[in-house]
Specification:
Number of helices: 5
Largest sheet: 4 strands, mixed
Number of domains: 1
CATH architecture: 2-Layer Sandwich
Helix content: 25-40%
CATH superfamily: Nucleotide cyclase, GGDEF domain
Strand order of the largest sheet: 5-8-10-9
Strand content: 25-35%
Number of strands: 10
CATH topology: Alpha-Beta Plaits
Length: 181
């Protein structure tokens, strides 16, 4: 058990909170692999958007079934108990940043902020089972550049992350990003 907490859903989106970015990364990587390996109904796999897709270079299966886009940000959040559900709800700038980063992602892609990378670096110095498990998936981290997020003044430095064997999913930076010098 990774220990994430489903905070709420909005439409087809889920907001999930974790104690640290290593747990969140481990969960995101595992979900991407699990979705690819799921036993999807044949009728779904016959659709143009959910059918299998392989790398034209290596032949590696990159897509099959439903593709989910994910976004991560790490930072202190304000929390309060929802009076209807009794569950904790979170708000504040970190939640807005995570939501905006997720909206830039493509199906099958995990986008993270620089703050997440800083959180991973802290985990490297302390033995962490969650960090170790995430690293077993040999994640590929690609520097996308700086993006302007709606409602946020400063540009955010964003990275695309894939389980190592799915790194060929990367097709380029999101629209409106600025490459690093």
């Amino acid at each position: 058990m990774i220990g994430g907490y489903e905070v709420k859903t909005e439409g087809d989106a889920f907001m999930v909170a974790f104690a640290d970015p290593c747990k969140a990364l481990r969960w995101c990587l595992q979900v991407q692999v699990d979705l690819l390996e799921a036993d999807w109904p044949p009728e779904l796999l016959r659709s143009s958007v959910c059918g299998p897709g392989s790398s034209p270079v290596t032949g590696q299966l990159l897509y099959k079934g439903i593709s989910v886009r994910m976004g991560m940000h790490y930072g202190p959040m304000e929390g309060e108990q929802d009076m209807v559900t009794g569950r904790m709800d979170y708000n504040g700038i970190p939640v807005i940043i995570a939501s905006r980063v997720q909206s830039l992602a493509l199906g099958g892609q995990i986008l993270i902020t620089e703050a997440c990378l800083e959180g991973f670096k802290n985990a490297e110095s302390v033995p962490s089972d969650d960090y170790a498990q995430a690293m077993l998936m040999n994640p590929k981290i690609i520097n996308v550049g700086y993006v302007r997020l709606k409602g946020i003044e400063a540009k955010e430095h964003v990275y695309a992350v894939y389980p190592g064997h799915l790194a060929e999913r990367y097709i380029g930076p999101p629209e409106g990003s600025t490459p690093l010098p």
